[in-house]
Amino acid sequence: MKQIFTSLGLILCLLCSPAFSQGDFADVEVRILPVRDNIFMLVGAGGNITVQTGDQGILIVDTQFAGMSDKILAALAELSDAPLRYIINTHFHGDHVGGNVPLARAGSRISGGNMRRDVTGDTASVIAHESVLLRITTSNENLMDPDGWPTSSYFAGKKDIYFNGEGIRIMHQPRAHTDGDSIVYFRRSDVIAVGDVYRTDAYPFIDTSAGGSIQGLLDAAQSIIDEIIPVYGQDGGTLVIPGHGRLSNLGDVLNWREMLTLIRDRVQAMKDQGMTLQEVIAARPSRDFDPRYGDSERFLTAVYETL
């Protein structure tokens, strides 16, 4: 039963992606957006992809859908002729890991690296929290070949690697969007890729079937804020690449945290008064944010259920 609900959560996430159109990606263009130094953001179908380039090769965060892989590889070739060495997955949903297999197969590991574990050949290394590995290899085992599974997983609070002359810190965010979310901090470049714990185009999808919760999402927002140093006030400085939407800075993430906090507190007050879920939805505690983020029913349901 748990696997059924987990698969349902994956399907819902796929369908909620604005660029998703039943797997037909022929007309989807991959846009390359420079972020800072050797960091780029690829926007196409599904989640944003973060790219780091350098003499040692290419590292990417997330892989979008499998059907986008040829276009993503073409975009990577525009940025560098070096091989793809590392893939970091921020969580297990298909719009962020769907391209793991073709992209990993197109890459190669660094010979003698401490993250080498042969699966079916010389592929790029895939890094993720152990929850991502467990969910990919159990609930979704028929959806992904082992070449796309994480070859290096971590279970503690963080994992550090050093690549292309830059320290990269991968930090677990428990029970947020899912139970296996990671944010990825490129320390020299001062850029954070955060997956779906933060987005700018819609209310968050809290996958309750995969351990997501409103409090975990708030904690993740605070984790991002704790890493950001602005140039002045709330502007400039550390840049944040969201799971979906536009490049952000401290002010954007603070506004996101404020939205999550206010809606959480309103729903909590209504729930404490004995209001049912349907009564809370009808009361529209998110009405002042709906013009910005859209329909809130699914989000309010998850908030209510995880308080």
Defining traits:
alpha/beta; Metallo-beta-lactamase, Chain A; 20% strand; seven-stranded mixed beta sheet; 10 helices; five-stranded mixed beta sheet; disordered N terminus; 307 residues
CATH architectural arrangement:
4-Layer Sandwich
Tally of separate domains = 1
Global structural class: alpha/beta
Mean pLDDT: 90
Task: For the largest sheet, list the strands in their spatial order.
Answer: 1-2-3-4-5-6-7
Tally of contiguous helical segments: 10
CATH third-tier fold name? Metallo-beta-lactamase, Chain A
Description:
The chain is α/β, with parallel strands linked by helices. It has one domain (2-306): Metallo-beta-lactamase, Chain A, CATH 3.60.15.10. It has ten helices and twelve strands. The strands form two sheets. The chain has a seven-stranded mixed sheet. Helix 6 runs antiparallel to helix 7. The longest helix is centred in the last third of the chain and has 23 residues, at 250-272. It starts with a helix and ends with a helix. 47% of the residues are buried. Mean pLDDT is 90; it is low at 1-22 and 113-120.
